[in-house]
Amino acid sequence: xxxxxxxxxxxxxxxxxxxxxxxxxxxxxxxxxxxxxxxxxxxxxxxxxxxxxxxxxxxxxxxxxxxxxxxxxxxxxxxxxxxxxxxxxxxxxxxxxxxxxxxxxxxxxxxxxxxxxxxxxxxxxxxxxxxxxxxxxxxxxxxxxxxxxxxxxxxxxxxxxxxxxxxxxxxxxxxxxxxxxxxxxxxxxxxxxxxxxxxxxxxxxxxxxxxxxxxxxxxxxxxxxxxxxxxxxxxxxxxxxxxxxxxxxxxxxxxxxxxxxxxxxxxxxxxxxxxxxxxxxxxxxxxxxxxxxxxxxxxxxxxxxxxxxxxxxxxxxxxxxxxxxxxxxxxxxxxxxxxxxxxxxxxxxxxxxxxxxxxxxxxxxxxxxxxxxxxxxxxxxxxxxxxxxxxxxxxxxxxxxxxxxxxxxxxxxxxxxxxxxxxxxxxxxxxxxxxxxxxxxxxxxxxxxxxxxxxxxxxxxxxxxxxxxxxxxxxxxxxxxxxxxxxxxxxxxxxxxxxxxxxxxxxxxxxxxxxxxxxxxxxxxxxxxxxxxxxxxxxxxxxxxxxxxxxxxxxxxxxxxxxxxxxxxxxxxxxxxxxxxxxxxxxxxxxxxxxxxxxxxxxxxxxxxxxxxxxxxxxxxxxxxxxxxxxxxxx
Length: 635
Description:
The chain has 18 helices and 26 strands. It is α/β, with parallel strands linked by helices and about 625 residues long. Residues about 1-30 and about 395-410 have low confidence and may be disordered. A hairpin with a 6-residue loop joins strand 2 and strand 3 (about 60). Helix content is about 35%, strand content about 20%. Strands 15-12-20-21-22-23-24-25-26 form a 9-stranded mixed beta sheet, with helices on both faces. The protein has a 6-stranded mixed beta sheet with strand order 5-4-6-7-11-10, sandwiched between helices. It has a 5-stranded mixed beta sheet with strand order 1-2-3-9-8. The protein has 3 domains: about 65-255, Vaccinia Virus protein VP39 (Rossmann fold, 3-Layer(aba) Sandwich), CATH 3.40.50; about 260-385, UDP-N-acetylmuramoyl-L-alanine:D-glutamate ligase (3-Layer(aba) Sandwich); about 440-635, UDP-N-acetylmuramoyl-L-alanine:D-glutamate ligase, CATH 3.40.1190.20.
């Protein structure tokens, strides 16, 4: 580890705290929070350093002007007696390691984890203790070596003991640790944390607490976290923050990397035309035509990869130059393609869309015949090609992922599965058979394909999906294919939800249309589906499950292209499910989906190059600060 003074509020630190307390004062500043980009709500000074505090994410950091240079920082670490001869220090490290290994044994039974000691220090005591127990361990320290492991290496457990407080760029360091962590792996971070309750705009408790806190006195301690901060780090880096296990000697925080998401669906070349003015029917309209990568399933998979969620994709690609370019660009985005099939085809799979002058879709055609080659037998071969993917441990259990069992009797290890309607019904059924216990999401893609899937074997597939994300036309197509008979009797919950809408919240959707959307959604829930996310275009999204109805309405923003907005929405809600819990966080799920759509709508590409966790988080924070997102909830 970089540095640790093994003391419990030691007398030297306590005296230094008292000496500096009376010199605490506020200062003017313009520095922004490195996490959420907010202007710090508080700043305070001691004799030696200035500090900034952010109410939005609960982070406190030292003024970069006070950072030691590399040589001075390294010399500081060399002064401390963190070695095997310090029995008290060895006991401290041993206790932490035992707690980490106990947590690992809850996640994975009878597995010998491969461990990385991040910031191991001049004498890597933690690494040595673990090796003595027979574990395979590698060490990394930017000052004392060894250097970072090879980029392709992955570890079951990463320990970061009394190191995070030294991070000058916590986002970069946590992202790097996430990179080396296997899906399903455990990151254990030990540091002293700030109490969440002190981060309130209405009081200055954080400054009073900080003034007497011994932990800030070390000049190499430059980053101080609350649990709010660590949860934010998890969300941004793509890690599920579990909890903090605290004691007088600091808090051990656990992060779990989600198991991969499996996406099966279409991949095609998008051809998009947009007129320079109003679109004239039956006429050659001046405009621009552009080619890009697309396909609902492929777009969802790329969005997940850009949002730091491990993802594997199953699809069919042609061997023509356009299809090969599509394949290479998808791989470069971070999507796993070991389960994809290459075929000879007369022409590449294509999606042709004509937009109106506002950027909304007016008409579209799709040529997706090659995906029909993904039969149940071919699917089995694709799944076999994915069987060697590397996840932490020998098998996965509930505790590994907050969203799914992850392990099935059929041997698939995924947090969630997403299927788009381009697959033939028989293949969808075969994939569902291989996914017992794993939540499966379905994107109908179009009215025609929605009807095809819904009518297969009398509607046998619809009730097997955990969630469905249709637009309103696809919703009605599915419901009508299942012989939905509209009733004039409005269920009480739907009636109460509509009545709760204030005059200021009314939209352009007529009341009767809103009733039909809600009743069709309820009908599909009664068929076995657990959650519906119905896209309403500029009117937002209606979400319904067994316990609540939600209507999320983001602010209306200038739209460049609507292509891909629904795909990014589904990717973002699945990501949030992976990082949070199935039984909670519905508010964050809806907001995240709408934020991802907003990013996509303002880009000409079906998958925005700007899509990343930090952009998503900062947009969510901006909406929260400005009260720009309207979410109506009825439980």
